[in-house]
Structures are given as structure tokens and as C-alpha cells.
């Protein structure tokens, strides 16, 4: 009986360590708020963030990411 409890405890510990190390449960608190620049946006994520900061200010903008098949610059707040 004790051997089974030890095995279960070890398995649970491994799952907890896996989740903690890969940040599976981490949620992204940022939400899409604006678009910036031309479509398609030909710059990098850093260029996108600079466009967002220049146009909308920081805060509220905390990041800029080039996303989608049409390469839109999305600003996140």
C-alpha cells in the first residue's frame, strides 16, 4: 500500500514540475487594442512595438506583434 502511495506521489510531483517549468498554466494578461502601420507590415516585432508606442503611447501599449497571414501590426494593452 505504501509503495502505491509513493508511486502516485512521485507521479504528481513530476506533473507539477513539468507544468511549472513549461509555464503551461501561465495566462497572457495582454489584450489586443489597436492596429498600427501599413498592411502588410514589413517590419519586425520591435518595429511594430515602436509604431504602437509612437502612435498610441506607452502606456497603454505594452507590446507590438506582427501577426496573421496578411502581416498586421497588432498593439497590445
UniProtKB/TrEMBL annotation:
Keywords: Signal
Highest taxon, organism lineage: Eukaryota
Signal sequence coordinates: 1-29
Name of the protein: Defensin-like protein 206
Gene: LOC130496459
